[in-house]
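Morning. Coffee machine broken again, so started the prediction first thing and wrote up yesterday's gels while waiting. Chain of 177 residues, entered below exactly as on the submission form.
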Amino acid sequence: MYYYRSTGTFGAGELEAKMDISEHSGSAGPPVRANGAGRSDGPDGQARPEEDLMSVIGADILVTGDIEAEIDLHVEGRVLGNVRCATLILGERSSVTGNVVAERVRVSGTVEGGIETTDLAIEATARVKGDVTYSRLRIANGGVIQGTMTHKPLDEEAKLTLVEAEPEVKPKVHFIE
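Came back before lunch.
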């Protein structure tokens, strides 16, 4: 099972919420059961690599607090807090009020906060209000970003350096008479 865990204050005390999100039937498909060692059993019983795993926050769920996940996250509901995960997919009616840090981000909903990512896809229904740092960017016609856009080079680009060519060495020629 996959759990979302959040802590926060409630009145004079502290509240800890733990919610099983593996049973939620969102648009990402049926739940996946963890089977350890970097693999899982899919709905057909076949072993699947861990990179195929995705947690879903459905349209009827409001999460208050920060979310950290090592796998992909699909949000159709609302998040009031920062999100850090491998890949983040935000559906059309989703909203995140907080900062987003992920390797890949696809926004179809609303983000009020900064986004830091390598690959950013802004869909036609997306509304982003905040500073964005990206390496690769795609914005569909109609997508809106209000904020500062900062391009960061990919690691491969950062490692490239310009070097001067060595002077041409002329071969020595000996004449034998």
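The chain has one domain: 3-159. Going to sketch it on the whiteboard this afternoon.
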